[in-house]
């Protein structure tokens, strides 16, 4: 059949077939360039579109930042789904508004500013200097070209330029400053009682029906998190170097470079200085040296070094501290002083030492550092240093092959591992937070990939992932096994629910007791008349920033009205842990400007100016929103959103 087709597909017939086949491919190619139909718009701001792809990328990036910032406290249930997408979309709309306004009023960011920002970015540096390879690797990790990154950076700086221009117009009058200080530095005279929740625990457990009803109403609280076990191939330049350099070579290099692996020695030093005038003759210099030698003899006989330093030393700074000049490393002192100080034993007193400042008596009171790091601790570093170019070259070659093989066989890592002679490793069960993950997996980028639709739902291998820009490490992963989120059985959580219901009842009873106590105090009863066993705390006059006091009580105390005709104001408030407080405000003293020195007044003005600047920026943004043409077409939450 194929031979017959080949024989007939000659001349005009062949050309007709080619043209018919080419038309859909050409149209498909054009569509891929134009992007029509492939990337729906989720919103537009004054005609500027925000696409689904842009929104999804920003949602994923925001989630990665949250995971990185919160660590083990990250909860996928709180930062997932439509709520996060809506919040990120709102931020993107605000950014588009600010950027559009900046363009319309003619703000610009020069190429020199962009270049300076890139050169100053720490993640693009190696040993404190801009490194082109690091720059390109970080951008590749983020899926950006240099042009795209520089465009994004220009827009970011342009947006900030507009915000700074608005904030620079914020001005604070003296009256506003006085009112702020009056309120911020207000003091209140307090008394309070704390009622412990545990003192109000019910004696009877809740009914079975109440426990079951709580379980039915709060099932999301008893869900196990979605978990995966990951199979992965890990590639590391450090491991490659370790495997290619022999032990004998590494130990020889370690012996040659011990200074490099020795922590700097530090010595805690004190001294007594007698200065020598620049025009002193030999006789004068000898007289001063002899005076210091006599002090040395007296110290050796038991008199106190620190007292002599305070009385005789002409180094006025150290004399006030018994001659102490701190903990120093070799090379930080005058060469003559340095040489003697780093030869003395602890507690040994030097002979008079001549420097350009005069004559010194030197004593070392402590020595630290100077320890050599064990060979095992620096072995990987030695291996990388010994075979840096070879290991790096091998790493990039293997990384490229690993990426290609994982893509060509998307449903298994075994062919890639067998071809490259690498090991497929398997993790423990892990949730989206990544808590407890192996070191090579403990990065938000890894878990963003692990829970992405392609990997989690479609069962494919991930792309090649390089989580750390400053280290030559990469891996490919796939989901070995998956546990969906599920509600724990009632019997498993019953005791937990009983405890929660008991605590809730106790907290409610403690607050009721506190409110009843407030009612009695307002009627004129004293604390002792209500309950003579109460422990009444009396911190006296306190500011609203008194961190040593319970925060919820302090906040409530500063919300109560001012005392009237000498009669205190009373209030009751519940704490997050279920305890309750009864608080009395006996007096209020407003803050005054004259109580602050000039520096503190200036600091208050700066803080108030910053607050007003933020408020004015928010008002400006609200005005932009009101005047803008904004269309929202938010599509349903995509499957990668937790």
In brief:
The chain is an alpha+beta fold.
List keywords for this structure.
extended, Chitinase A, domain 3, 642 residues, single chain
Can you give a write-up of this model?
- The protein is of the alpha+beta class.
- Among the domains are: 2-32, no CATH class; 186-222 and 490-589, no CATH class; 226-245 and 387-484, Chitinase A, domain 3; 263-368, Chitinase A, domain 3.
- It contains 24 helices and 19 strands.
- It has a four-stranded antiparallel β-sheet. Strands 7, 12, 13 and 14 form a four-stranded antiparallel β-sheet that branches.
- Strand 1 (41-45) and strand 2 form a beta hairpin.
- Helix 3 crosses helix 4 (81-104), helix 11 packs across helix 16 (375-386) and helix 17 (388-408) runs antiparallel to helix 18 (414-420).
Topology summary:
Elements: H1 2-8, H2 11-34, E1 41-45, E2 48-51, H3 52-70, H4 81-104, H5 111-120, E3 125-126, E4 129-130, H6 132-141, H7 146-167, H8 174-184, E5 187-195, H9 208-217, E6 223-224, E7 227-236, H10 237-244, H11 247-256, E8 266-275, H12 282-300, H13 305-312, H14 316-319, E9 324-329, H15 335-341, E10 353-355, E11 358-368, H16 375-386, H17 388-408, H18 414-420, E12 425-426, E13 430-431, H19 444-450, H20 453-457, E14 473-483, E15 486-487, H21 490-522, H22 527-530, E16 537-543, H23 551-557, E17 569-574, E18 580-589, H24 598-627, E19 630-632
Antiparallel strand pairs: 1-2, 1-19, 3-4, 5-16, 5-18, 6-15, 7-12, 7-13, 7-14, 8-9, 8-11, 10-11, 17-18
Helix pairs in contact: 3-4, 4-7, 9-21, 10-16, 10-17, 11-16, 17-18
């Amino acid at each position: 059949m194929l031979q017959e087709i080949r024989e007939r597909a000659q001349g005009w017939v062949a050309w007709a077939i080619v043209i018919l086949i080419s038309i859909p491919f050409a149209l498909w190619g054009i569509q891929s360039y134009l992007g029509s139909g492939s990337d729906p718009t989720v919103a537009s701001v004054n005609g500027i579109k925000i696409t689904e792809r842009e929104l999804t990328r920003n949602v994923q990036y925001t989630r990665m930042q949250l995971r990185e910032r919160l660590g083990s406290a990250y909860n996928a249930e709180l930062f997932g789904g439509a709520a996060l997408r809506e919040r990120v979309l709102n931020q993107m709309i605000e950014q588009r508004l600010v950027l559009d306004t900046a363009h319309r009023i003619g703000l610009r960011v020069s190429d020199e500013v962009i270049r300076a920002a890139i050169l100053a970015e720490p993640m693009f540096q190696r040993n404190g200097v801009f490194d082109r390879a690091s720059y390109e690797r970080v951008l590749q990790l983020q899926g950006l070209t240099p042009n795209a990154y520089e465009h994004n950076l220009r827009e970011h700086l342009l947006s900030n330029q507009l915000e700074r221009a608005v904030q620079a117009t914020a001005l604070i009058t003296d009256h506003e400053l006085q009112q702020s200080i009056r309120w911020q530095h207000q003091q209140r005279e307090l008394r309070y009682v704390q009622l412990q929740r545990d003192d109000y625990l019910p004696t009877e457990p809740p009914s079975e029906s109440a426990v079951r009803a709580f379980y039915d109403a709060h099932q999301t609280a008893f869900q196990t998190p979605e978990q995966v076990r990951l199979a992965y191939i890990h590639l590391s330049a450090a491991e490659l170097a370790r495997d290619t350099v022999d032990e004998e070579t590494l130990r020889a290099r370690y012996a040659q470079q011990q200074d490099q692996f020795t922590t700097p020695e530090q010595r805690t030093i004190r001294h007594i200085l007698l200065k020598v005038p620049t025009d002193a003759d030999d006789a004068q210099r000898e007289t001063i040296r002899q005076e210091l030698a006599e002090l040395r003899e007296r110290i050796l006989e038991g008199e106190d070094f620190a007292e002599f330093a305070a009385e005789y030393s002409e180094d006025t700074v150290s004399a006030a501290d018994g001659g102490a000049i701190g903990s120093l490393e070799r090379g930080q002192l005058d060469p003559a002083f340095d040489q003697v100080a780093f030869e003395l034993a602890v507690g040994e007193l030097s002979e008079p030492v001549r420097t350009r400042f005069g004559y010194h008596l030197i004593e070392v009171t402590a020595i630290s550092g100077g320890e050599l790091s064990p060979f095992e601790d620096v072995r990987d570093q030695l291996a990388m240093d010994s075979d840096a170019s070879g290991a790096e070259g091998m790493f990039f070659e293997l990384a490229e092959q690993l990426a290609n093989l994982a893509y060509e066989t998307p449903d298994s890592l075994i062919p890639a591992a067998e071809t490259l002679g690498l090991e497929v490793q398997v993790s423990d069960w892990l949730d989206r937070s990544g808590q407890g993950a192996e070191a090579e997996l403990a990065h938000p980028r890894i878990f963003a990939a692990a829970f992405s639709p392609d990997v989690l739902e479609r069962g494919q291998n991930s792309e090649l992932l390089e989580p750390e820009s400053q280290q030559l490490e990469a891996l490919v992963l796939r989901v070995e096994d998956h546990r969906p989120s599920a509600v724990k059985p009632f019997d498993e959580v019953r005791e937990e629910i009983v405890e929660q219901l008991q605590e809730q009842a106790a907290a409610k009873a403690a607050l009721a007791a506190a409110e009843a106590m407030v009612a009695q105090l307002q009627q004129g009863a004293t604390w002792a008349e209500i309950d003579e066993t109460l422990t009444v705390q009396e911190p006296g006059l306190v500011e609203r920033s008194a961190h040593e006091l319970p925060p919820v009580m302090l906040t409530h105390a500063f919300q109560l009205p001012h005392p009237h005709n000498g009669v205190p104001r009373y209030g009751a408030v519940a704490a997050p842990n279920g305890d309750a407080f009864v608080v009395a405000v006996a007096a209020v003293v407003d803050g005054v400007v004259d109580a602050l020195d000039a520096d503190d007044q200036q600091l208050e003005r700066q803080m108030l100016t910053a607050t007003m600047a933020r408020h004015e920026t928010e008002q400006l943004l609200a005005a932009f929103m009101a005047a803008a043409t904004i269309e929202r077409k938010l599509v349903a939450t995509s499957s990668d959103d937790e």
